């Protein structure tokens, strides 16, 4: 369609797309700067309740389900809060929950603390969290309710700050920005990067600019205000009760204020897989509430997508080398995220700067795959689906670069590739990827894989599948290098290279590690993607390549 337009129409279309991209880019960078400055100005600036007023009583509702290695530490931190009038209300699903013994032991250890245990929920409520909390909410004797989930570690300063803020007449709810405590390991570093860079990136900016961004992990609410909007149990019909609860309070004229202290999530047994699974569930939940924002706006405001279309539109308007723009963008974004994390942490990080860099890159790349996985499978999770996305994402990414090459030929100008220093660094980077992946590919193929196939099926089935999946990932990395190298140097040569077609057969050969349903999905996506990539885009590449050589 773009090819059949006349030159003037093409110019108008490109101008509109470029202008919209530039506006989104500027808004995103502005939000990042606002979050950084609001963190400096607002975080850890405790609000002390007025001395002339008697401190109101607070009922702390603590929903529990099962045991976590650090659950006792989290619950005991609530028993140790020094506050005049406070009651702890623990809620469990049934009398078989292992958390009951822990709660009873802590109640015996702190007999002077007013605490109660509620077993069983309220019928007719879909949301399991609200189902557990409803009896405790009805039995609460104080007019301020602090809902604190099981993974939250508390202290007295947090409660005093939230009480000081909620005593203002127009404030209906005070909530904490999610954060996490320090732990050892790469998964803990990814968690810290997510809750210290990604979440505050827009959480602080939106709340500073007057928009509602509320996460129901830990919040203090006026019971009268919540009863005014139908009470807590009414929102049990939604899985994301915090979203609808916060929106209802805003509509009634109440303000939602952010606490000066981030919520300290204290969870043991962290892993990258558990992080990915939790993010998938969260994105699926958001997809059911705000689908347009979840699948369009949020992915387009991540670092790498913003950098790609930001570099393209700046190149279109000002003619600046997009390689320089993209490199400067990523470096600047990384620096701002690091400053934001240090600002929220307010102490030395539990990991090195190198580990921060690796965790930051890993999280940024995982986000794209998580969103695509949710779009492809919005209801039921499937093991190995992320590996299937490698086989679909890489050719699609190549197609995207090819279309950029068509719209703005100078984006991949051979002059930049041959003589500019930044292009040399890019080529060196992808060459290193190719070298390492080739080495590990040979090691897996000729050393580990034959040994696994010699042992009995029942003994090493897990190891065999893990190695096959590792080999599939290495094939995908080799394919990525092939596509990027081909697009940057000569798109026409990409279609003629035997490495391109070998990658297809290697990928098909790796399908044996997946289930029957995943194989069916794989072939459908592979056929569609490669038909488009080799047939339609092949013609586009030829046309754009010819135009490029003409311009040179």
TrEMBL record:
GO molecular function annotation: ceramide glucosyltransferase activity
Enzyme class: transferase
Compartments where found: Membrane
InterPro entries for the chain: Ceramide_glucosylTrfase, Nucleotide-diphossugar_trans
Transmembrane domains' residue ranges: 12-41, 202-221, 287-311, 323-341, 353-376, 388-417, 424-453
GO terms (BP aspect): glucosylceramide biosynthetic process
GO annotation, cellular component aspect: membrane
Signal peptide stretch: none
Family: Belongs to the glycosyltransferase 2 family.
Keyword Kinase: no
Top-level taxon: Eukaryota
Protein keywords: Glycosyltransferase, Membrane, Transferase, Transmembrane, Transmembrane helix
Pathway membership: Lipid metabolism; sphingolipid metabolism; Sphingolipid metabolism
Entry membrane topology: Multi-pass membrane protein
Protein name: ceramide glucosyltransferase
Assigned EC number: 2.4.1.80
Organism expressing this protein natively: Acanthosepion pharaonis (Pharaoh cuttlefish)
């Amino acid at each position: 369609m773009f090819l059949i337009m006349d030159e003037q129409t093409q110019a108008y279309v490109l101008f509109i797309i470029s202008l919209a991209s530039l506006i989104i880019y500027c808004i995103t960078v502005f939000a990042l700067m606002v979050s950084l400055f609001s963190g400096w100005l607002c975080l850890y600036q405790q609000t002390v309740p007025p001395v002339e007023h008697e401190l109101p009583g607070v009922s702390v509702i603590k929903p529990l389900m099962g045991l976590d290695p650090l659950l006792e530490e989290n619950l005991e931190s609530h028993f140790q809060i020094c506050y005049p009038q406070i009651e702890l209300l623990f809620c469990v699903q049934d009398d078989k929950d292992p958390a009951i013994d822990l709660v009873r032991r802590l109640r015996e250890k702190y007999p002077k603390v007013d605490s109660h245990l509620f077993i069983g929920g309220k019928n007719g409520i879909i949301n399991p969290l609200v189902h557990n909390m409803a009896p405790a909410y009805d039995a609460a004797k104080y007019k301020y309710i602090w809902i604190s989930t099981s993974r939250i570690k508390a202290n007295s300063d947090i409660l005093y700050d939230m009480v000081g803020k909620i005593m203002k007449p127009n404030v209906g709810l005070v909530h904490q920005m999610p954060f996490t405590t320090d732990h050892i390991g790469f998964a803990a570093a990814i968690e810290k990067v997510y809750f210290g860079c990604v979440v505050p990136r827009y959480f602080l900016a939106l709340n500073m600019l007057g928009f509602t961004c509320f996460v129901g992990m830990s919040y203090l609410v006026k019971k009268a205000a919540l009863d005014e909007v139908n009470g807590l149990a009414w929102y049990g019909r939604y899985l994301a009760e915090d979203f609808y609860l916060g929106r209802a309070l805003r509509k009634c004229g109440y303000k939602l204020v952010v606490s000066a202290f981030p919520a300290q999530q204290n969870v043991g047994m962290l892993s990258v897989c558990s992080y990915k699974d939790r993010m998938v569930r969260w994105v699926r939940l958001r997809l059911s509430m705000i689908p347009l924002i979840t699948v369009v706006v949020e992915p387009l405001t991540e670092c790498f997508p913003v950098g790609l279309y930001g570099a393209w539109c700046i190149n279109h308007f000002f003619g600046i080398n997009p390689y320089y723009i993209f490199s400067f963008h990523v470096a600047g974004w990384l620096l701002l995220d690091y400053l934001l994390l240090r600002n929220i942490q307010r102490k030395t990080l539990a990991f090195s700067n190198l580990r921060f860099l690796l965790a930051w890159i890993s999280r940024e790349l995982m986000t794209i795959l998580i969103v695509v996985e949710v779009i492809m499978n919005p209801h039921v999770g499937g093991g190995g689906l992320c590996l299937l996305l490698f086989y679909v994402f890489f050719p699609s990414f190549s197609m995207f670069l090819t279309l950029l090459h068509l719209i703005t030929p100078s984006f991949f100008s051979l002059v930049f590739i041959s003589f500019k220093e930044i292009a040399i660094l890019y080529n060196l980077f992808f060459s290193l990827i190719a070298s390492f992946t080739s080495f590990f590919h040979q090691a897996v193929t000729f050393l580990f894989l034959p040994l696994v196939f010699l042992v009995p099926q029942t003994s090493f089935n897990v190891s065999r599948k893990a190695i096959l999946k590792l080999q599939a990932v290495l094939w995908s990395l080799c394919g990525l290098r092939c596509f990027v190298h081909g697009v940057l140097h000569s798109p026409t040569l990409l279609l003629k290279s035997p490495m391109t077609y070998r990658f297809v057969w290697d990928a098909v050969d790796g399908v044996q590690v997946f289930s029957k349903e995943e194989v069916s999905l794989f072939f459908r996506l592979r056929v569609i993607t490669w038909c488009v990539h080799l047939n339609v885009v092949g013609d586009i590449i030829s046309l754009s390549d010819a135009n490029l050589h003409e311009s040179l």
